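Appendix B. Chain record.
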Amino acid sequence: MYTFLVNLSILDIASTSCTLPKLLSMLSTNQNTISFAGCITQLYFFLSLSCAEAILLSIMAYDRYVAICDPLRYVVIMDLRYCVILSLIAWIVAFIDLSGHAVLISKLKFCASHIIDHFFCDMVPVLKISCSDTYSVELLNFSEGAVLGIATFFFTLGSYAFIISTILKIKSSQGRGKAFSTCSGHLTCVTVFYSTLLCSYMRPTSYYSPKHDKFFALLYIVLVPILNPVIYSLKNEEVRQVFKGLNKKWQLQMGLKGSCQRNLITY
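Structure tokens predicted for this chain:
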């Protein structure tokens, strides 16, 4: 599981790094420009990283399925070598798959306007200002979205169907709670990820709303990378013990400080 969490952390850092630094630079310098090559590069890496995260989350759902539905063989099935291979598949498939989008978009003409109504180079706002026929790009987007996005979504959904079925068969309430706690963090991350992603991309450009798109994009770029480490950190017993120790240490220091102040006032 920690192998997948490392990859998820790298994906979150990389996805924010390809958008937010440029945005902060524009806000600080008031130079709201980006080169065409830089725009295509930013778009390609952002979409590839999003695709890799979708694949990785579905792989993590399978990992939770094995841990709950076949716990005695978990160490044998999900060994380190197999986890590394699955992680590499997520990266390779995503970056190869989205290369077609970058090539097609780079060949479009932008004679009508060069102003992107967004805070980074996202697919829909870039296609919106093109004066070329964007049907091929939209068709590729929906077809690959159906193959990868919907496939990974239903694979994750199917994994959780088996997980919930197995949990309901556990007789003790304590056992059910312990089993559910092992996948609750991942389930929360999946819900936030897919809800923002589907609202942003799985629709035609004719339904494009700059205001709504900026809101959902900001949620996806900022909220998801922040929530993922917080959720998984709070689900980790060792991390919780560290926080409890720091809290007790802080309370002890505050108590000693208050005691010293009272002694000084008495004196």
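Further analysis of this model is presented in Appendix C.
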